[in-house]
Specification:
165 residues; alpha/beta; Rossmann fold; six-stranded parallel beta sheet; 5 helices; 6 strands; AB_hydrolase_fold; UPF0227/Esterase_YqiA; Alpha/beta hydrolase
Length: 165
């Protein structure tokens, strides 16, 4: 299993979270500059030619990019507090249609997130849902925008369990 992990605007994948992901496969965690490169999506497509990603996992802006990437290459994705309702920096992304859809989108939202509110994501998801995609949504009432390690581990484990079904 080859896992693409996409970090948020001003974050990186921590060693603890990387070790959680490595239980399930090989992790590619690109260092992305969302601010200065509006073509991150094209870079991801090039990376996919080399690695052939099986799943995409992302947080915040990385969740935003993972959403579009997963739907374009049609792979499952785990999205932590994705920046879908509020695009913080300009990025060139493809228009999606019914032929572009992931088989599974698993959203993990923080009930205390004051950067990207869970309700804003829920509204966005309901308005942009692809009918061919299975959606799972978890809301962690105690979590803000930062992903707690225990929540990360729980959601990653559940995500990969769903892929085995």
């Amino acid at each position: 299993m080859t896992i693409l992990y996409l970090h948020g605007l001003e974050s990186k994948l921590s060693p603890q979270k990387q070790s959680v992901l490595e239980r399930f496969g090989t992790v590619i965690a690109a260092d992305l500059d969302y601010y200065n490169n509006p073509n991150v999506f094209d870079l991801l497509l090039e990376l996919n030619k080399e690695h052939k990603f099986d799943v995409a996992i992302g947080s915040s802006m990385g969740g935003f990019m993972s959403y579009y990437f997963a739907n374009t290459i049609k792979c499952p994705a785990l999205l932590f507090n994705p920046a879908l309702p509020h695009r913080p920096v300009p990025q060139n992304i493809p228009d999606l249609n019914s032929s572009n859809s992931s088989s599974l989108l698993h959203f993990a939202l923080g009930g205390q997130d004051d950067v990207i509110k869970a309700n804003d994501n829920l509204k966005w998801i309901s308005e942009n849902r692809q009918t061919t995609t299975d959606i799972k949504i978890s809301i962690h009432n105690q979590m803000g925008h930062q992903i707690l390690l225990d929540v990360f581990e729980k959601e990653v484990t559940e995500f990969f369990r769903q892929l085995e079904l």
